[in-house]
Automatic annotation (TrEMBL):
EC number assigned by the record: 3.2.1.21
Cited Gene3D superfamilies: Glycosidases (3.20.20.80)
GO cellular component: cytosol
This protein's name: Beta-glucosidase
Top-level taxon of origin: Bacteria
Amino acid sequence: MSDKFPNNFIWGAATSAYQIEGAATGNNRLPSVWDTFCTIPNRVVNGDTGEVACDHYHRYETDVKLMVELGIKDYRFSIAWPRIIPGGRGTVNEAGVDFYQRLVDCLLEQGITPHATLFHWDSPQALEDLYGSWQSRQIAQDYADYVTAVVSRLGDRITHWMTLNEISCFTHKGYGVDETPVHAPGTQVNSKKAVWQTSHHALLAHGLGCQAIRAASPGSCKVSLVDNFCVTVPLSESPENIAATQKAFHTCGSNGGIIFPALTGAYSPALLELLGEDAPDIQAGDLEIIHQPLDYLGLNIYKGAYVRATDNEQGYEILDWPKGYPKMHMPWLNIVPESIYWGIRHVSDTLGHKDLPILITENGCAAQDEINAQGEVIDSDRILYLRQYLKSAHRALSEGYPLTGYFLWSLMDNFEWSWGYDRRFGIIYVDYQTQQRLPKASFHWYRECIRQNRVV
Ligand code: BGC
């Protein structure tokens, strides 16, 4: 196989509602848990909030023009629940729907296919006040009703739907037992079981959400989940290390309790054994609801965990990071380009879904971007990172794995959650004072990859 990507390969870019939209109080939108979280002292760097963000709500036409300049034909964004149903349940806010209709029409006019994530962490605060959001089983049904409201109104324009973004982040990092959770709502609960219960409820929401999309969509559509499982990567590709990597995959992070039930219909037995009485309560029928057929799987991949075979009881070791291991501008962002290739292989080999199409729904990095004297941002470090990861994606393709596309995170700098505006992930620089957009060197590099349909 040449270094070309397949002709129909999807080259895209991604964003999410709370991170870019701003207009937090406009047109009947009510607060999400992130609006509230941002007001608590010391939770977000510099006390930043998503109130204005990139003001994309008012500037979406400019941003779509930049997408055209970039040459992408696919764009992944998210829809804000607190805009569509500000109270979390009940009345639909048609002004909120209207914004997404205008955005999607603008994309379609430019020949850009919209890929909509129905939930990217901005739970309505009203549901937090009512029943503690993901702590309650009720949220799964309220989410499904919200999905029905969206898909019945936007399903004539949008046919690619993603239910939830990264379940582990808004549950296991939004609720905690000992340490203060870094993500909204930042609630302390009294047991690990209670934390696992929140992700179980999110899985139920995903399952009911898939059913709701298919029931409400006026035509055929594609449905997926976006997950960021922990990618175990063999330190070297010996048969022993590869087998150890597959074994370690079950209990690494929250894999066994999120991607396993979603794709196989069962929690991993290895995880359940490890959890003991911390395992969530699973009611009869839950796993059937959770285990919906998917048209493809979305994978957000940034990093991996190196594993090797050892002769200890479990047969593997997840390795520590040496001091000085190269990383991008986040404490967790170790550079592991093979994680794309191995992430895809785990879906095929470890989870047994050989033919399930995969989309890399996020990959990217933060860098210490600065505008130089010539008025440019030369982020060659970001290019270095992206190039290696894309080559790893190409390896998966050349070995016949069903990778169908890649969305770069992110189209533009944005509100990086508890890091506020202190960390930049975009290939377009945003000056938050003036709201000027400035394509970085990585933007021009990515445009060339798209144009040549290969990694340049
Ligand atoms: C999230 C994004 C976030 C990115 C970088 C992903 O986990 O989906 O919202 O900005 O990582 O931290």
